[in-house]
């Protein structure tokens, strides 16, 4: 608290601005990641209009005007997004279903009456737009209000790195939708290259044209192609922790802000606190996040979980959105909502069973809680590999998870002290940063406001065609020149050989004639 008072006082007297902030993704973890930024900007006098699926509804934040887009969850459910993510029997169909649900949600959000009031009001002006770029549709606001913009993301965005001229390499930095970490095997390298080419094609020729049409439908026909707008991004804020995720070379307009959503644990609700305090044997906390619904798990997984929990000498607290579970073991308590960060800070938490979203992973690490990961989505599977690599937990495949494997894994992580030790070491490394994430994000946001963008920080690589960036034209020229040299050399040698043969025939023929005359 003292730090923030000093920090806020030191920057008093700055110009205030009107900021439009939009977070598209209907996922609580995506929404809370950047809440501290909106709050701090509002405390510094900026007027923030926030489009969010999870409004804070805090009357003390008088400088924040929230547009409630919580109906997005219903749209995602209507088009089968949760079912597709939870039970991926047909992966291609699941991806298609999920992408279709995202598109329908984007269309619904931009057409929302409260959003349209802002869009159609000629007196509505903004100085800056901050928008989540995980899905591109909201970038259309940039052209509608014709102001600089900052893109934000809660995990690596290869597409945006390419637009900004940062290094993009399918072997060193596999696409975030692939469950791979370097060093890659030959087959992984092959898959990563083909996947990267496909994703570039898909984003440039399918996703962006489709979402450009959605943006034009609701924001105006003069909206440029979204890939053009993305290329004008002043800054990219990525909520990543370099101690946990793989580092990459980036330009000065890409800002890594680690742990912005992390906070000191607060007291738990009274009933939950009593439950935790009385659990002297320890508690296993189990949550699959927002997007994967526990009640949609298939019967085999549910059975393995319940039978395993019943045999454990610990209490199990399960975030479960469905109705009551039949034959629930006595040591298992289900709750529809749990204050995760506060719970993980309780000393009686022995283990966190998680889907391994990046924010959940960070929250467990800073609270020194080892993990068992049961990932469902590709980026979660990648995070699970990080978890294994760092030695802070173990992971299981949800497709063939057995009771025996689950029980053995849980007991191994709880009873082997190396997992706890590695988690503490990684937490210390994670906290050792040059400045808090919120302070860093606010400073660069106001830098963008002061300078009306940051085009001067853009890498020249962003404007160079791919064939030039990869030196394909230079390599082609060198190869062509070498080929010409080889051909010329070959022809010269061939001519020389012919001349030599001719001379040899001539000389040999002359010698033969002389010998005949002699005889």
Automatic annotation (TrEMBL):
It is a single-pass membrane protein. SUPFAM superfamilies: UDP-Glycosyltransferase/glycogen phosphorylase. It comes from the Eukaryota. It is found in: Membrane. The chain crosses the membrane at residues 466-493. Residues 1-16 form the signal peptide. Its EC number is 2.4.1.17. InterPro entries: UDP-glycosyltransferase, UDP_glucos_trans, UDP_glycos_trans_CS. PROSITE patterns: UDPGT (PS00375). GO terms for cellular component: membrane. One of its GO terms (molecular function) is glucuronosyltransferase activity. It catalyses: glucuronate acceptor + UDP-alpha-D-glucuronate = acceptor beta-D-glucuronoside + UDP + H(+). Keywords: Glycosyltransferase, Membrane, Signal, Transferase, Transmembrane, Transmembrane helix. Belongs to the UDP-glycosyltransferase family. This is UDP-glucuronosyltransferase.
